[in-house]
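Handout, section B. The chain below has 361 residues.
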Amino acid sequence: MLETIDIEPQRAGFSSSRLSDAVAFALANEINWSRNIDDQLGKGEFEPPPWNEILGPTTPRGGPAGVIMRHGRVAAIWGDERRADMTFSVAKSYLAILTGLALADGLINDVNDRVADTSLDDHFTSAQNRDITWLHLLQQTSEWEGALFSKPDLIDRNRQLGAEPDNSRKGQHRELGAPGSHWEYNDVRVNRLSLSLLHLFRRPLADVLRERIMDPIGASNDWSWNAYRNAVVTIDGVEMPSVPGGSHWGGGLWIGALDQAKLGQLILQRGAWNGQQLLSEAWVAAMLTPCAINPEYGYMWWLNTDRARYPSASASTVAAVGAGGNTILVEPAHDLVLVARWLKGAALDPLIAQTIAAIGA
């Protein structure tokens, strides 16, 4: 039976008409991506052949969708808020949450510990990798060198992000520095974090997430976290999927906008839900602390330091962000959660502005 959703813009402190205008804006600004994700990835969205080989499952995407919540109330919904679509790098932020659970369980003593001391494989034994800490992996400063599930870290070296990134040097050799010396958005290294967490929990990460986070916050059973076809490892004699922190090569977290809004609300509430502390408040604070060499990034969450990313939002705003215009935005100054799916990148800040302008109008 589907959950009944009360949509209460006025009780959430919004002008219904002004908020309707914001929703109309979101619907009118769908990203220019094919609805067939295979086609989008196959034409070299992230890199040219043969490095763009799809290793995991894909699913056709839906249309623009989203949810706006304020004061814990659903104020607006557009599109199909329950459709479990691919989320791309939004999944990275879920890996940070899982790392917090590993710390709470004593599987990690401190994020400054070396991964080599606890991760049960030989990918951290080289001179380049042996001093990498959990903090380095979380902040994307690890400079980890190697290949994982047939993808070398080289594939994302020199990768640039932004509205008009220059990726002419992406995939070209770059001399690696010491761990912590260079920030680089690298999906292979993120997937290396995921595999390390799998070794710690010794059970599929999706099961841990479902039991510890998603079920307690009332998420649906429709979401899934899908591995590459070659990303199966044996732990304690049992084959388990090692899930990716994105959908760069297929797979990844497939989830609906309403479930994502609930996750955003958990972060807004500093890890608390209905009287339970599902995620340590100290961990949420650490996760949203700026990286020393990239103040717009925390532990796999994007930050709005100096309002650089989202000028219309407060500096305390944080976001889980994925390709294709997928965003979970948490805006504490207005007690606001905004989830947008398949939105043009340039439209996100205007959508934030229109949403905030609708408060109390």
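Note. The chain is about 25% helix and 15% strand. Compare this with the example in section A.
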